[in-house]
User: Fold these one by one.
Assistant:
Number 1:
Amino acid sequence: MAKFLVILDVDSTLIENEVIELLAARSGSESEVTEITNRAMNGELDFEQSLRARVATLAGLPVSVIDESRRDIRVTHGARELIATVVAAGGRVGAVSGGFHELLDPLAQELGLDYARANRLEVVDGKLTGRLTGAVIDAQAKADALREWAIDSGTPLSATVAVGDGANDLEMMKVAALSVGITAKPIVRATADVHIDTRDLSALLPLLGLRG
């Protein structure tokens, strides 16, 4: 049985970036995408509709932009310490993202995450089509992932923690025993059990009794 199961949102939580904006910077649609992202994370837009609208702006980009964007990712301060400490204490750590597997999977391997789930970009003839494949990872899917990984790791929901910053994280925060916002949007600040105002994920460790 895992001592804790910590589930992290990815964009602006586990990492400092919004990966859709990294990709959009290569298509010239960054300002449009940033505006849509901000409205979605504030709960003003339906997440799936907003995601599909943002991904549509990437149509025609060569698949090489994924590797280029990956190099721009900056892991949030304290993330490596948090993950290593939780795992050393017998816990598990997962990341669930409204972003994309193509960028998350290498990061998950690098950081030693136990679980990772995200959306998938459709590629045809070496180019992004501006569409997704498979089910969309929305707020409900994030909550479902937390429940699924709790069962898989043998962790009771009473020992689960959800960390995020936007409206898409609210459902998994409702399921978790402890919800933590990190420099979050107002809608998350208003509902999270705890809020961290600094960009330092190791600040979670005292909450778990893993650091004084």
Number 2:
Amino acid sequence: MKKILLLLAVCMLSSLSYAQKLKTLDGKPDCIKGDQNINIIFTYDDLKVGKMNEGDYIKRETAERNDKEQGTGDEWSIKWEKDQSERYPAKFIELFNIHGDKLFGSKVVENSETAKYTMCVNTSFIEPGFNVGVMRKPAKTNHMITIYETANPNEILHELEIIASPGTGAAGYDFDAGFRIQESFAKAAKEYAQYMYKKHLK
């Protein structure tokens, strides 16, 4: 019994470990310092979910849920797309603006028609993770963030990669995959703002 409990404890600790990495690939974001009107867009080009491409993942999850209870898979697939367009972007924007405004006076807004600069957040990988009570695995996401002049999107002013941004809930109450992924986006936004400040805008 003790060996089983020890094994479970090790699994829980290993599932909560992570090594988030942020790496500047090109340019410096000096241009956005103090800008309160940075346009932001979110894309999911070539998205992988776990070891699958997104399309196959959605088909599998939808079918498995519908097999268990008709209609639940279709509801899940609608929620999956809605979370990508609403829930995750909203959380990223919220956390970036809190820290970006505090550290270097910058904020992002969606659908700005007057913004000089645009920030594109492309999410290329999502690991939803799990929480089954005795065992947990955090969500993780990878993002490529680019900043460019809105009028000239081919000229990249800054490009940065975020790898393995973790997402968990406080005190273990993160049974919903959407919530874990949302927190992963929040972590990415916070760390990105802090990284930009320390590396480029301080």
Number 3:
Amino acid sequence: MTLTPLLNGNRVRLTALNSADTETIAHWQQDNEYLRLLDAKPAYPKNEVQIAEWVREGQRGRETFLLGIRLQATDSLIGFVEIGDILWAHRVGWLAIGIGEDEQRSRGYGREALTLAVEFAFRELNLYRLQLTVFAYNHAAIALYERLGFQIEGTFREFMERDGERYDMLLYGLLRPEWVR
């Protein structure tokens, strides 16, 4: 039997995060655009201590699997993927992705990393359903999720306010039988 490599793509690979990565991730926290694409909470940077706790929690691998996105060519950390809040009895998990450096966005790294993460979730963790939320103003992420087969399942109307305007938050889901690589 030949096993397919799970966490290695052509240009990126998914790895464990380690304590040395906290400085890089804390640097990303200084980018307001990154923070506003990633989270509905106020765009407030976390420090290295807070990042280290998040990494430690992700390393426990019970209900959350936190993986770094590294370039194959240089081993540079450019982002993360998180499969979290897993409900094992139902085989359901939440998915999140962040590409930290602006110059690494819109280059296809997120698509490759997300493809690897979905494969890992369905083939190795044996999940049946993945779900995620995305803000309606994040057009690049929405296009990516839809290209990968995620389907819109709901809208949290006028969920958040940014710069005096209200924005929807969209719920997307992907079922294992729908996943076509």
Number 4:
Amino acid sequence: MKVSIRKMRWLMFLLGRVKIPLIGYTSPKLISIDSQSVQVKIKLRRRTKNHLNSMYFGALAVGADIAGGIQVFYFSKLIGREISFAFKGMNAEFIKRAESDIIFESNQGDLVKAAIDKSISEKSRVNETIEVVAKNDACEVVAKFDMIVSVRVS
């Protein structure tokens, strides 16, 4: 079964409007998603800026949250099962100021899928640490996030 990017964009839009309004407030755009990687863009604008005209760390955290979590929804649609997930922890390293639009990338689909498969086989909640990298318009890394995702397949 294939999950279209259009469907995932719609899901992310609904998530931001109904369940997590802060996602909707930052208006992220899903650039690409597949079983291996995901890219999400948040524009630098009035809603996402801080007093230094760089992206507020809260907006950066929202981008990391989406890039780390939307892949769980992707696999949920792919396997046709309900997956309960939450972030259990986060470690962030801010390398330089984010003074442009930011693209959040995670290339750890294999780890997410392995956690889901382990949850199915063990019938328990599984934690996995995935890395999300935030890059500016010049493709320079501005921040790195280690997101601890906790999944349980119903």
